[in-house]
TrEMBL record:
Domain of life (superkingdom): Bacteria
Family stated for the protein in its record: Belongs to the PGI/PMI family.
Native source organism of the sequence: Candidatus Yanofskybacteria bacterium RIFCSPHIGHO2_01_FULL_48_25b
GO biological process, one term: carbohydrate derivative metabolic process
InterPro entries: Glu6P/Mann6P_isomerase_C, SIS_dom, SIS_dom_sf
UniProt name for this protein: SIS domain-containing protein
UniProt entry keywords in alphabetical sequence: Isomerase
Gene3D superfamilies per the UniProt record, alphabetical: Glucose-6-phosphate isomerase like protein, domain 1
PROSITE patterns, A to Z: SIS
Gene Ontology molecular function, alphabetical: carbohydrate derivative binding; glucose-6-phosphate isomerase activity; mannose-6-phosphate isomerase activity
Domain SIS per the UniProt entry, residue ranges: 22-153
Amino acid sequence: MTYEEGIIALPKQFTYRPAILNKDKIKPFKELIILGMGGSRLAADILNIIRPDLEIHIHSDFDLPKLDSQSLYESLIIANSFSGDTAEIISGAKEALKHNYNLAVICSGGELKEISEQNELPHILNPNGDGLPARMMIGHDLLAIAAMIGLSSGLFKACADLAPEGLKAQGSGIAQSIGSKIPLIYTSQRLNELGYIWKVIFNETAKIPAFHNRFPEADHNEVSGFHFNHDEFAAIFIRDDLDDRISQRMDAMAKILESKNISAHHVQMSGQSLLDQVMSSIITAHWAAFEIAGKAGIDPISAPEIKDLKDQLS
């Protein structure tokens, strides 16, 4: 499947109904820890936006988070790796096994699949993506996590009706405003994880640096970094305008950046629910990054630098 086909087909992922193997092995839990790196942590980031009450602890590192043993015993630890071969996630899964913690796995194959089968762990085998990378498989991942923690799939039902083609023009406008510049992505604290997802998409799809900060924190440090002119940057403000105080600060920051030769592009969140808004925003980011990659004549799917880094470490 091509990258463009993947964007258009993304809503279909929300018709997915994952099957949990060894479901009866899931123990009752009080806390939730998700081990995830790169594109395999993005679904957990989305859940932290739309369901902050779940208080998901996302661990993007080797081993397990440095929590007390009681908290770890009372948690459901989900090792989530699209490939099933992510070294950091495998290390965390093995440590959880060593201590007999409440461990479950989400993957599409690889070593984690073998570990799950050998130890009869509760696990979900997601579709392999038909050549698409983890960052484009968010729908499958969201539904898999939801199934594993007992969250109703109905929460995501409306996402199947999203129309990616209708967001292509907005993505193109963002791509044109960025051009060959480095995007600076700004959100509210409420949408902090969404800004990170945009950064990931620009990094891996467009193969460009991208940076993210959130308001009001950016007013207390980052604004000082623009004392001089910086025409190598393009600012993107992702706005929900739910808090006038944040909107005012974004407007003020945009004026300061524009006075330093930094263009400011405002992206208004739209959609009936917060999840609709988040997914529409992510699709828009995919379109923007896809166009930048196309103009540069590069493959939007592959990530050769990541492969090179892994080869050096193997």
